[in-house]
Structure formats: structure tokens, C-alpha cells
Amino acid sequence: QPSQTGWSLINTYAISLNDCHIPRLKTITNPCSRNLSIGMPLASNIWVGLFRRLPFIIRDLDCENKETIENEINMKLLKYKGLYSNHFAIQEIEAWMVADIDCFKKVYKYNKHECLTRLISKIQYISVPEKISCHPKISEHLEKFARSCALRYRKTIEGVQLLKEVNPDTVSVKCPAFKELRKDLWERIEFPNEK
Length: 195
Hints:
By secondary structure, this protein is α+β, with helices and mostly antiparallel strands. The protein has nine helices and five strands. The protein has a five-stranded mixed β-sheet, sandwiched between helices.
């Protein structure tokens, strides 16, 4: 199934560790390919994944200047110029979660999601998550809303669970930067894509 194949690739990059060096890579099992590897991030919000020895760098944009960030990454990886792909989660990876609000129903079961999804639906620009302001960030909204609903939202626990449940087709419609990342991944794996 195209969407699940594309998404299982994305999920492998959703790791959150603080480290500022180019990663040693570890091969992981993936139903799509035996050639997918992941490693430590270049920084707390930059992840590197290898697919068929072609690195993908995914970073939360966090309302920073995209061009400046790309230049910084390109300078750090100068000797690898042309051998990797830069992509951004705009403004952060939580935009992908709120783009498919149904994922909250799967993680916060037994109707516990109702309070949370009601509050999320009131965020300005929720129908276009990449336009949501960074003041506060989407992750900060989620943490605050979860607390007010007597729930928890932590990037490294519920965040990972939510990413596993997100429908990439829905996210692609609402998040153009995600759609570009997905398209780039599909081209690298030569996956048949609807034009």
C-alpha cells in the first residue's frame, strides 16, 4: 500500500536524542527495503536517515529561516555535497499529527481524545498546519491541552505513538513540505506514485 510504505519510511526518522556529530548508522528491518538505516541526529531537531546510501536530513523548521538552516547543514556536510537531501517539518513534526486529527483517537482511547481533539480543532490555521504560529509551538499547544484534559503529551512517548498512527495521505494534502519529502522518498525507492 503506497501510503503505508511511504509512512513507514518517515517513522524511522522520528527519534529524539541530543548529539551533534554525524551519526554512526545502524541498519534496521523495514518491510519496504533491506537498505534503510537510521542514525543519531546531527542536533536535537535534525535527523539523518539513510536509504540505499542516500541520506535524508529532516529538521523541524521552528519558524527559523529555511535558507539559513540549509546553508548551515550544507556547510557542516560540505564534503558530501549533492549526496543527501534536506527536508523540513514546518514548523515542527507535530504539524503532521494535527493534520490527521484521527490519530489522536487511536492513541488516546476510550473517548479520552474528545477533550484534546476539541481543543486542537480551535488552533488558528488548524486546516493548514504548516501555517500555525511558533508562539506557542504546536508541541506546546499539545502539552498544554493534554494537561487541561488530564492527559499527557510527550514528544518521545505519545509523539512517537501518534506518528505511527498518522495517515500520510491526509498529511500530504494539508502539509506541502511533507508531500515533498514523501515524493522525494518515493522517487529514491522508485515507488509507483500517482501523478
